[in-house]
Design goal:
The chain is of the alpha+beta class. It has 2 domains: 203 residues, Ribosomal Protein S5, domain 2; 171 residues, 2-Layer Sandwich (Alpha-Beta Plaits). Helices cover 41% and strands 21% of the residues. It has a 6-stranded mixed β-sheet with strand order 5-4-6-3-1-13, with helices on both faces. The radius of gyration is 21 Å and the shape is globular. The termini are close together. The structure holds adenosine-5'-diphosphate and magnesium ion. Magnesium ion binds next to helix 3.
């Protein structure tokens, strides 16, 4: 529990908070840019957290503060709109707006103060952590019973409809469904999921945050979503399919001819081969074949770089220097365009790996990367005060 957060709550609202909640962030092991194509992903929650201290108000205002930001955001439950001046507050406010849109009666306002050690806008899904946490807070404070997957769906509806990012469900699911030492196999065709023990044997999972800031709503993210939509509509004229994830690897030569546009084809090829890599990765893990797992992770990065074109200079450089520093596998994780990467390294190599990647990256860009061992953890947490 974060004492500064509770103190700030008391100083800001002149009352004690009544509840305390936490949500982790996530990495995706493999299966990138597949979620909005109804494909497969393999994420896991990791133990960097956003915390929130919460209390009821006597009026109908939602008052939001974040120790990571300067401004206090206030809105009235009867008039919540997305406004640029509400900046980050548009994420949590969207949850309340979405609940109201769904017909729920929210009878009182709330004070919420957040504090987070999740790197923000870095590909580890600080936005979904904030959204899932706020959806969890709303369900508990207003007594609306929701399963974790329903919390994820509410947060996803809010991020797409209220915040305007046409994202898939992976981030929200990964955080809401997180389970200690388990990865989540998510099938975005029907949002079904199961837990998998991914065996890394003598390898450690490392996260490398590039610390290159980016804004997804204004990045080519929505453009990729559009390209996939256009590719699908061209294929649909010839194949009876519902999504790009219904295309098989063996269909690709024919699909290339039908689509008739090399850029669109490359996007489709990434999605189709990436889904296959998720299946192959889970199979390799079950067989204890870590060298195959590493090969697939490296192929995933290459596909995201060459075919999907979302890695960008910084993540490509981190990929190269990580492999040179002894990583057996390295790939970007999350949406890309800057953001973060994951690597698999021998357990005993962490300190030398970290030192080497930090040095090389700083030498080139004068930016300090954040490098840490991933600890796969549980999802949403409610704590007694
Ligand atoms: P990512 O989800 O990869 O971290 P996004 O661009 O999707 O990156 O989301 C980042 C945005 O989420 C921030 O710009 C901010 O608006 C919001 N956000 C995340 N964490 C916090 C926080 N602790 N306090 C306030 N806003 C936050
Ligand atoms: Mg995000």
């Amino acid at each position: 529990m974060n004492k500064l957060l509770i103190e700030t709550y008391k100083n800001t609202f002149h009352a004690k908070p009544s509840k305390y909640f936490m949500a982790p962030c996530r990495v995706n092991l493999i299966g990138e840019h597949t979620d909005y194509n109804k494909g497969l992903a393999l994420p896991a929650a990791i133990s960097k957290f956003i915390h929130a201290a919460v209390g009821k108000r006597d009026d109908r205002k939602i008052c939001l503060k974040s120790l990571n930001k300067l401004d206090v955001i206030t809105a009235d439950l009867d008039d919540i709109k997305n406004k640029p001046e509400q900046s980050w507050g548009n994420y949590p406010l969207g949850i309340f707006a979405t609940l109201i849109k769904r017909g729920y009666n929210l009878p009182f306002g709330l004070n919420i103060i957040y504090s987070s050690n999740v790197p923000i806008a870095s590909g580890l899904s600080s936005s979904a952590a904030l959204l899932d946490l706020t959806a969890f807070i709303a369900s508990k404070m207003y007594g609306i019973p929701m399963k974790n997957e329903e919390i994820a769906m509410l947060a996803h509806q809010s991020e797409t409809e209220f915040n305007g990012l046409q994202c898939g469900i992976m981030d929200e699911f990964a955080i809401a469904l997180g389970k200690r030492n388990k990865c989540i196999i998510l099938d975005c065709k029907d949002n079904s999921f199961s837990y998998e023990d991914i065996s890394f044997k003598d390898l450690s999972l490392v996260v490398i945050v590039s610390n290159v800031r980016r804004n997804l709503v204004h990045s080519p993210y929505n453009q990729r979503v559009e390209e996939c939509r256009e590719g699908l509509s061209r294929i649909k004229k010839h194949y009876n399919i519902d999504s790009l994830s219904d295309v098989k690897v063996t269909d690709l030569p024919e699909v290339r001819r039908i689509v008739g546009n090399e850029t669109l084809f490359k996007r489709i090829k990434h999605v189709v081969t990436e889904n296959q890599r998720v299946r192959d990765f889970v199979k390799a893990s079950k067989e204890g074949d870590t060298s195959m797992m590493c090969k697939l992770l490296n192929e995933s990065h290459e596909s995201l770089k060459t075919d999907y074109e979302v890695t960008g200079e910084y993540l490509d450089y981190i990929h190269d220097i990580s492999l040179r520093a002894g990583a057996l596998a390295e790939r970007m994780t999350g949406a890309g365009f800057g953001g973060s990467s994951i690597a698999l390294i021998k357990n005993e190599d962490f300190e030398t790996f970290k030192e080497s990647v930090f040095r090389e990256y700083y030498k080139k860009y004068k930016i300090r990367p954040l490098i840490f061992l991933a600890d796969i953890c549980d999802g949403l947490i409610e704590k007694d005060l």
